[in-house]
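Quick one - first record:
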Amino acid sequence: DVFENFFGFRGFSQNRAPQKGKNLAYEMRIDFADAVKGAEREISVESGRLKVKVPQGVRTGTEMRFAGKGMPGPNGLPAGDLYITFRVQTPDVFERVGDNIGTVVDIDFAKAALGGEVEIPVVDPNSPTGVGKAKLKIPQGTQHGTQIKIKGKGMPRLNGGGRGDLIVEVHVKIPQRLTKDQRRILEEYQRL
């Protein structure tokens, strides 16, 4: 009791014997398409082979517990548990925050001023890689750093219930060199 009061643990007691087998930890690396669509994988661990259903929308750090799939317990005690932690290989074009996906699109200053359309990467459950393309309308007068939210075009939610959002951040690229004509037109614009 003295040990428990001062140090937060019990001293040496008769309850030191294991209550079940050893738990196992396994890290499963999956590609982006499996996280978008869901999949089934078979793995080998110390306790044997196991089929794992990868849920749609899984993200890096998601952990699944499989009760009784760890090491067998001593003297007929129950087996321990198996814990699987997922690591998703998200493409470089995306930054994932929960169920939302972020991406960056570069446009020139003329498109920022006048508006127009650009092609962007999107999460696409029908694509073999989980990544597709879509057109995005750039509003006239778009500023550098503007974020455009496209509802329901992010990752599938882990336990069902639709999809997250796609957030596109617009970067306006200023040319480092101008032709004589481009320079003349910009100088005329500046005088207006």
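second record:
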Amino acid sequence: MISLARDSSQLAETYDRVGERQFHHGKQLIAALRVGAGQHVLDVGCGTGLLSAHVARLVGPAGKVDALDPLPLRVALCKKKAPTNLEVRVGVAEDLSAYPDHSFDVVYLNSVFHWLPEKTQPLKEAFRVLEPGGRIGISTAATEAPHDFELLLREVFRKSDLVSDGREVPSATSHRVSSIELFQLLERAGFTDVQVELKSFVDHFEDTQDVFAFNNASSFGNFLSSLSHEERALTHALLEDQLERRRTQQGIRLERQLAFAIAQRPGRA
């Protein structure tokens, strides 16, 4: 089971250092949302605020960014880098009651949706706080497009006795939906002009420890957390062999695919 309590100062600081991979695809999401000067934007699941600060620069002094995250240690790091037009708080996607109806031009969830066990309430809340004509953007792992790393993990477990007791291969992003399901969820929440597409990204890691550090920090300590110490050590050793086979001149090459969704709250254009 995913737990927020597994986060630590070290994990939060590591994520702040290695989070450029999610920052990179997050900028593409923001571009697709056409975020611009003077807009009021809500970042749901802001992490340590790399993307929040970028959006604050885009909206400029006439605009504002509100951001929230359920992990206090990451919120604290976000506050340290926050410009004057970025306000950050601890909060969850399921409860945006701190914000009035029709407060925002744009709401986005970048690499957040696959962490949410229940999808309907977060979308209802996003719909409520958006202005008529406002836009929502989501980037998320999709069930039909597993990342290279996940495929390697499955292969390692298949070839070992780590799942001999009937357990599933542990995946931190266990609350994923398919692209079709994401489309349907947005429509049922009342959004229109829904567009969903899969996008591919290639990451290069310096070494295997870099891979493990990224996965552990981005999952706030939940990567392989269901395994015993001995099982994690074995998994790491088996994964290292598989990962080294993907080494190129640029580093260990891993591809991932994300579903990008853009939709609108009905109303004025």
